[in-house]
């Protein structure tokens, strides 16, 4: 049986299309790099100045100077390029990133995102998230549906400091997929046997159900 993290990654992979320029956020999103099929040509961009990130390195491939924005060692694809942070953020702010897949702490029914800090805990800053949610052509958030206490992370209104307002295009959790439209938050998929009623019970946000709702099985 797949773990919740594996379910999220496999569903998120469906958002990526051949030829895209994609930024993967710190945390769960970075694991998507290892799941991209070899026959799919995708250029992964990192805020610290690398375009063409490959899978995580094997032990004999580790180069301490080759890292992503989360300071994890990575590999570089054939044709990769290196540049400074100014150039990297010019790509993001200039609208040249097709898709940003980011992690989330909270997402609310308005498409607001909180993903960078919990008050009272030491943080270094939000990194490139603020720029990515405004500069990328499409923003997909991936996260578990509830926290470790069983409380919904899909809120009527975010309670944590915001990364951006009304910036989320799609939310993928381990239980469901939602789109954010001019008419509000819409449930478009239930995952791996979860019912609409199941989703309502663990979702604080108000949402409607798409008439084309799909019941999807991921990773089995």
Keywords:
220 residues; single chain; 10-stranded mixed beta sheet; 3-stranded mixed beta sheet; alpha/beta
Task: Please provide a written account of the structure.
With 220 residues, this protein is α/β, with parallel strands linked by helices. 15% of the residues lie in helices and 28% in strands. It is built from four helices and 13 strands. The strands form two sheets. It has a ten-stranded mixed beta sheet with strand order 4-3-2-1-5-8-10-11-12-13. α4 (196-201) links the parallel β12 (184-191) and β13. α2 (85-93) runs parallel beside α3. The longest helix has 10 residues, at 4-13. The radius of gyration is 17 Å and the shape is globular. The N and C termini lie close together (7 Å).
Give a brief outline of the structure.
The protein has four helices and 13 strands. It is of the alpha/beta class. The termini are close together.
Secondary structure blueprint with pairings:
Blueprint: H1 4-13, E1 21-24, E2 43-46, E3 50-53, E4 76-82, H2 85-93, E5 99-103, E6 106-108, E7 113-114, H3 129-135, E8 139-142, E9 154-155, E10 170-172, E11 176-181, E12 184-191, H4 196-201, E13 208-216
Parallel strand pairs: 1-2, 1-5, 5-8, 6-9, 8-10, 12-13
Antiparallel strand pairs: 2-3, 3-4, 6-7, 10-11, 11-12
Helix pairs in contact: 2-3
């Amino acid at each position: 049986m797949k773990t919740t993290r594996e379910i999220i990654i496999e569903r998120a992979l469906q958002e990526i299309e051949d030829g895209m320029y994609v930024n993967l956020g710190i945390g769960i999103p970075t694991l998507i790099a290892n799941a991209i099929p070899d026959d799919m040509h995708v250029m992964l961009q990192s805020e610290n100045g690398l375009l063409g990130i490959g899978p995580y390195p094997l032990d004999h491939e580790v180069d301490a100077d080759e890292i992503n924005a989360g300071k994890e060692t990575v590999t570089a694809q054939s044709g990769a390029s290196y540049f400074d942070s100014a150039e990297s953020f010019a790509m993001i702010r200039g609208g040249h990133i097709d898709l940003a897949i980011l992690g989330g702490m909270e997402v609310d029914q308005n498409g607001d995102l909180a993903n960078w800090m919990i008050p009272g805990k030491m943080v270094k800053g939000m990194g490139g998230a603020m720029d990515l949610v405004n500069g990328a052509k499409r923003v997909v958030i991936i996260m578990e549906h509830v926290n470790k206490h069983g409380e919904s992370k899909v809120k009527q209104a975010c309670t944590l400091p915001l990364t951006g307002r009304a910036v989320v295009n799609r939310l993928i959790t381990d239980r469901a997929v939602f789109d954010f439209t001019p008419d509000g938050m819409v449930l478009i998929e239930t995952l791996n046997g979860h019912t609409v009623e199941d989703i309502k019970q663990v979702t604080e946000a108000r949402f409607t159900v798409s008439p084309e709702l799909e019941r999807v099985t991921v990773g089995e």
